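Treating backbone geometry as a discrete language has practical consequences that deserve illustration. The amino acid sequence and the backbone structure tokens for this protein are reproduced below.
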Amino acid sequence: MGKKYIKLSEYAKVNCMEYRTAYEHWLKGIVKGKQLVTGTILVFSDDEEIEEDNLVATYARVSSSEDKNNLERQSERLVSYANAKGYRVIKSIKEIGSGLNDERKGLYKLLNDESIRIIIVEHKDRFSRFGINYIKLLLEKQGRKLVIINEAATDEEDLMQDFVSIITSFTARLYGKRRSKRKTEKIIKELEEK
């Protein structure tokens, strides 16, 4: 039985990437196949040859629906990163909700789906405000991993992010969700001035 071919456009769709990115992969030899005399590019369908270790999902999150454009750009950056690493993106989750909310449906489904070997997020706070190391440990026990693209550069920056998370949590409880963002920004500005 010979290898199964699919059009490059279908390959791009299946792998959650722009056609332009798929074409660049074709030019660089990342994707194997053939080009017909008509110009159509056919690539090998890797349905039978999927390496389990390369099955990934991306997770993008923003806090409010006002940031929907940022959500789309964040998701596109994650998929581009995964494609550049040679991973096969089988799910691309986009969610609107607080990082403190532990009832996010998209994240719940993602963590519950053990066929996903790698979960890719842009920043750790996009995934969770607290307990990220516990989640990483539990995923590793299942033979899975969480990849955070932009880790905090320094301990000071990491501490500051934790501090902001704590302030956000408490102001949300004290002042309600709407006013918490303004209060948090005010407190952070005052701290930075000192």
Summary: The first strand starts at residue 5 and ends at 7. The radius of gyration is 20 Å.
